[in-house]
User: Which sequence fits this backbone?
């Protein structure tokens, strides 16, 4: 059990999933009809300015490279954002 926890922590830290990791990541955004049961969505207004910018860019349908230091927690895989009366699923891709 202890080894599993340590391995999971090492994976999270190495991929930058706990905040502004220094690795490259790409954000994609897809509109969804319904929020899956037991999932919550963050309001667009609650995103940091750099997160809002990346989200708006990704709305065009093409994945957006997140700037180094951009907090990725709000976009965790999968994440959901409420924007302009719609719900969007966000996905982080780490090459």
Assistant:
């Amino acid at each position: 059990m202890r080894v599993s926890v340590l391995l999971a922590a090492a994976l999270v830290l190495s991929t930058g999933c706990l905040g502004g990791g220094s690795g490259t990541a790409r954000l994609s955004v897809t509109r969804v009809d319904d929020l899956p049961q037991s999932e919550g969505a963050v309001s667009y207004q609650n995103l940091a300015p750099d997160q809002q910018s990346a989200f708006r860019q990704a709305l065009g349908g093409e994945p957006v490279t997140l700037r180094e230091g951009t907090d990725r927690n709000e976009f965790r895989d999968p994440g959901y954002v409420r924007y302009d009366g719609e719900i969007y699923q966000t996905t982080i891709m780490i090459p």
